Amino acid sequence: HPPALEMKDPSTLSPSACRAKGGASGFKVAILGAAGGIGQPLALLMKMNPLVSVLHLYDVVNTPGVTADVSHMDTGAVVRGFLGQQQLENALTGMDLVIIPAGVPRKPGMTRDDLFKINAGIVRTLSEGIAKCCPHAIVNLISNPVNSTVPIAAEVFKKAGTYDPKRLLGVTTLDVVRANTFVAEVLGVDPREVNVPVVGGHAGVTILPLLSQVKPPCSFTPEEVNYLTDRIQNGGTEVVEAKAGAGSATLSMAFAAAKFADACLRGLRGDAGIVECSFVASQVTQLPFFATKVRLGRAGAEEIFPLGPLNEYERAGLEKAIKELALSIEKGVSFIRN
Ligand code: NAI
Description:
There is one protein chain. The chain is of the alpha/beta class and 338 residues long. The protein contains eleven helices and twelve strands. The strands form three sheets. It has a seven-stranded mixed sheet with strand order 1-4-3-2-5-6-7, with helices on both faces. Strands 10-11-12 form a three-stranded antiparallel sheet. A two-stranded antiparallel ribbon has the order 8-9. Helix 2 (39-47) packs across helix 10. The two termini are 32 Å apart. 1,4-dihydronicotinamide adenine dinucleotide binds at residues 32-33, 35-39, 59-61, 101-106, 115, 119, 122, 125-126, 142-144, 146, 171, 174, 202, 247-250, 253. It is found in: Peroxisome. The active site is at residue 202. Residues 28-170 form the Lactate/malate dehydrogenase N-terminal domain. Homodimer. Substrate binds at residues 106, 112, 144, 178.
């Protein structure tokens, strides 16, 4: 293997500098697709996370530049870059958490499912690497269509005999982040005080905000419910259209991914009461995967919470979501099985 693009290895520091670093506590995190629109700002945010001791940046292009750049931030994490498939194994070995924003994004007029053809193969390759090199890592899967790529990764891990459903998490945090923002706007409050559970999946009608369960408790008019549900479900498309061909959400997505990764790391550390929504293997509905609130702990998604009481509007939404999700999940599963 060609050597990794190592930018700041502790072994190159003087002994006193090593002592000043306070030992090698913290978690090892890899970002796959680190040179992309999401990957770059996500690398920045993970380099700022005090729970991260080692940050591996992998992509098939441009990682030397991104790695050199991010490595100059005077935070604790040691940054190493890995370029091209032949360095994938080195990028993954020893990792506690692997975040995957690799793959093509949408352009106007495309659905997330239109990305399947390209991204399914990318996620398969990366999952095979994880099964081989860091089978116990927590995986945060961002690449779309999440509703299919999570089942793809699960099938790859099953084949390899490494599958632990608790450690495979589809990232739907951006839907929650958007929901909190849009609901706060309607209520006229600070978005940081709002928590909207968003369940189902991560595409169109499968994105199901539970506005009856918003915290702090509040109520909406039917018009507000329609407006909010539609805006949350189509928040991604809003960005794709505004970017007019230049891609999809990257900055808000990097923020959401960093928030979710931080929650996973706090769970790994053993913090109590870490709850986030995520698309995971689930028995909450008849589907094998579903996004709900999950409690994150040392083992990953240690507890999956039920949907809670739904109103009539949400029950109708749930039926629609389940129909579409079933197809997307099946598409992912059969991509690996057949
Ligand atoms: P981008 O095109 O800017 O970056 C993708 C990166 O992946 C590129 O640097 C590319 O070189 C890299 N890549 C391609 N093949 C690879 C491989 N085999 N191994 C490693 N890296 C590889 O795209 P962007 O905007 O960063 O989006 C990435 C993905 O995230 C897309 O699939 C997009 O749909 C998805 N996404 C998911 C969201 C979610 O809420 N889960 C929200 C927004 C985007």
